[in-house]
Structure formats: C-alpha cells, structure tokens
Design goal:
It contains 17 helices and 11 strands. The protein is α+β, with helices and mostly antiparallel strands.
C-alpha cells in the first residue's frame, strides 16, 4: 500500500499558494484494508475514506469508464491493481494531475509542472470530453489563475458544446461552479471563456443574448468587482440583463440560493428610483424591506457601488433615511 498527495494541494504548493485542502490517493489497497486500518468510508459511488485522525479524504486509486450522459454517467473501477498514473490520467487538467510521494518526490506524468510554469490550462487526455462539467471547471480555473487555455483544450470544449453534452448538466452544479467562479480573482474570465467556446448559450442563454457592448461592459464590471461577496457579484448579472422577468427565469432555472436571487431582484427593483428625493429614498427602503432586514440595504449599496451606479453621498442618504425611519 502506497499513499500519495494529489490534485490541488500539489498544484498550489508548486505555485507558492496556501494549501487549503489535502487529498490523497491510496495505491495497492482494498476497501476492507482501509476499514481495518480505522478509516471511515464516506463515498457511496466512489471508494473514498476519511482518515481516523486528520479526517482528510483518502481515495483508492481508480479508473472511470463512460456509461451515460452527464457528469454522473461513469462506471468506477477500483482495486489494488490500478496504478497511480492510471488514476491521474482520469483527471481533467494537467495542472491537477500531479502527485507527491511520501518522500516528497513529484510524480508528473502529463507535464503539469511545465504548464504551471507557462501559465497554461491543458486537458490531460481525450477522456476530458466524458464529463461536461469540466468545461465549467476549465472556465473557473481560468478565473482563478488567469492562465491561458491551450488551443486544443478550447477546441475540445467547443466540440463538447456542439455535441450537446452540456445539456445534461444539472442546474445546481452549473450554479455551484458559477458561484465559485464569481468568488475568484478574475470572475470575468469565467464568462469570457464560456462565451468563447459556445457554452454560454447553453448554460446562460440570457447572458449570451446580450449585445456585444453590454456583455463587454458586464465583464469590465465583474473585473472591477472581484473580491466582493458572491451575492453582490451575482446582482451585477441581473443589472446587465436589466429585465426582472429574465432574471427571475434564470434564478428559477438554475435554482439560485435566496440571497443571490434576492440581491439581483433588489437591484433591479430599486434601479430607477430617485434617491435624491425623500420619496425615492423611502421607496428604496421599502423595496429592500430595510426596517426589518437592514443587511439588504447594505448589500444594495455594495451592489450599486460595484456597478458604478452610486456615489458615497447616495449611501449616506440611504443610511440616514433608514436611521430616521427606524426612530419613528
């Protein structure tokens, strides 16, 4: 039995970034051996176990075979004969397909370190096409690292879109990847790349329908808003759509969390109100239910600032109006 650190922890350590979560692959072991050693099995579909002391995830080396559409259509094979390289070969990108042994040696069969040094996101192999979620993950990693995408990987992503594979993605997974991308340092790269490979028209047809000038403006706003809370950045999508019905349809289709959906709704409903007048100020407070939920007003102020629609004086007037109304 041999244990290797794999994936994001190896990648981030090579980049000099803080390592958040560590994942491990176990080669040459059975599920029963893991249980006998005190590990707790947590994976129903995959042989994944929690370490008895650190509670980090340890997975048996495995291969995967496509058996249906979507990200869940796989048959998993895990036994002691599966090698480390076979396990790494099933991963999405070369920068995520590296491992480190117990003695610190780097195992890099697909050139991940060279791609890290070059700032390139490249797929490991042809199995990339088997999981449509990988197109969104590719875009999310572009938003995180601001790396270039290898031409052959972009071409493969376009092929997956043309083949209709992204139509099998589950709504919650689409938003999960999107929300994570919105929290990355370059959130606009996510939407740019989805647009470039044709995926935007599948997962965000509302955004794909924007004219070029509006889409470019949205991307510039997203770039400036990097680092803001996800619900604040989400509301910028609503403002770009500038249509409550369109935004509500997107929220329902992708099953957005309440905070993200409401942030966009608040921004749209209050956008045309004149906050220079007392009536407009009070109407804005009503729209966001500020007396009962003052945090919604704070969020609206943050959204307006991120969108470039307000100045500090507007925020001061809104907070002053809330204070006055609260004292009534």
């Amino acid at each position: 039995m041999k244990v290797y650190e794999v994936g994001g922890a190896v990648r981030d350590a090579l980049l000099g970034r803080p390592v958040q979560d560590r994942d491990w692959v176990v080669v040459g072991a059975t599920a029963q051996q893991m249980l006998d050693a005190g590990y707790q099995q947590v994976g129903r579909d995959f042989p994944v176990f929690l370490h008895p002391n650190t509670h980090e995830e340890y997975a048996l080396a495995r291969t995967e075979r496509k058996s249906g559409h979507g990200y869940a259509g796989f048959v998993v094979h895990a036994d002691p004969s599966v090698t480390l390289e076979q396990d790494l070969a099933r991963r999405d990108l070369t920068v995520n397909a590296m491992a480190r042994s117990a003695d610190g040696a780097l195992i890099d069969p697909f050139g991940g370190q060279a791609d890290l040094d070059a700032g390139v996101l490249r797929h490991v192999g042809p199995a990339f096409v088997e999981d449509p979620l990988r197109v969104l993950r590719l875009a999310r990693f572009a938003a995180r690292f601001d790396f270039a995408v290898a031409p052959e990987t972009l071409a493969l992503s376009r092929h997956m879109v043309a083949a209709g594979e992204l139509g099998f993605l589950v709504a919650e997974r689409v938003w999960q990847e999107t929300a994570r991308a919105l929290a990355e340092p370059k959130p606009h790269r996510y939407f740019r790349l989805l647009h470039e490979c044709g995926a935007l028209a599948v997962v965000f047809p509302e955004l794909a329908a924007l004219d070029a000038a509006t889409f470019d403006a949205l991307c510039r706003t997203l770039a400036d808003a990097a680092g803001q809370p996800v619900d604040v950045v989400s509301a910028l999508l609503a403002l770009a759509l500038d249509d409550a019905d369109c935004w509500n349809g997107l929220c329902e289709r992708l099953r957005l969390p309440t905070d993200a959906a409401r942030a966009g709704d608040d921004a749209l409903r209050s956008r045309t109100l004149d906050t220079a007048s007392a009536e407009g100020l009070m109407r804005t407070l009503e729209v966001v239910d500020a007396l009962r939920q003052p945090q919604r007003l704070d969020r609206l102020i943050a959204v307006r600032a991120a969108a470039g629609d307000a100045d500090p004086a507007t925020a001061t007037r809104l907070r002053g109006a809330l204070e006055a109304a609260s004292g009534c």
